[in-house]
């Protein structure tokens, strides 16, 4: 029983590392090897930018460099997708019931027009230490 448990643990660890994205490296210091590893790790666009720095033209439509017998464009398609980090979700809430605080929340929910009607000059209202117009621009898509 103990032997089976150990084998199961080793197998799960092995399969976990096989499932992760491999990292490619260049075996020598040639620019072609560098472009191949860059294409495999970061994508074709990154490799094209680096190639342009060295005066090498790489086309998206025609074969240019072979990496271990595979076209660099095909290698780039296998590159791990570049995840764009999501913007942090911001929640805006009224910390107190003061008139100015409620006006700031109203400006976010309904826009600046109702606030302008109530106080006249928007420059006199500060929300979290900044002008109400800047506050609304910054947090208009925040959860309220």
From TrEMBL:
Signal peptide: 1-19
Protein name, as recorded: Exonuclease III
Keywords of the record: Exonuclease, Hydrolase, Nuclease, Signal
GO molecular function: exonuclease activity
């Amino acid at each position: 029983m103990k032997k089976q448990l150990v084998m199961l643990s080793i197998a799960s660890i092995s399969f976990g590392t096989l499932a992760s994205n491999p990292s490619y490296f260049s075996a020598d210091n040639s620019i072609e090897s560098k472009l191949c590893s860059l294409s495999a790790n970061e994508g074709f666009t990154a490799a094209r930018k680096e190639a342009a720095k060295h005066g090498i033209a790489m086309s998206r439509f025609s074969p240019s460099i072979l990496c271990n017998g595979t076209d660099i464009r095909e290698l780039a398609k296998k590159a791990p997708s570049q995840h764009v980090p999501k913007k942090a979700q911001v929640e805006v809430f009224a910390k107190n019931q003061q008139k100015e605080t409620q006006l700031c929340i109203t400006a976010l929910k309904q826009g600046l027009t109702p606030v302008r009607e109530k106080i006249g000059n928007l420059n006199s209202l500060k929300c979290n230490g900044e002008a109400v117009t800047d506050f609304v621009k910054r947090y208009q898509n925040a959860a309220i």
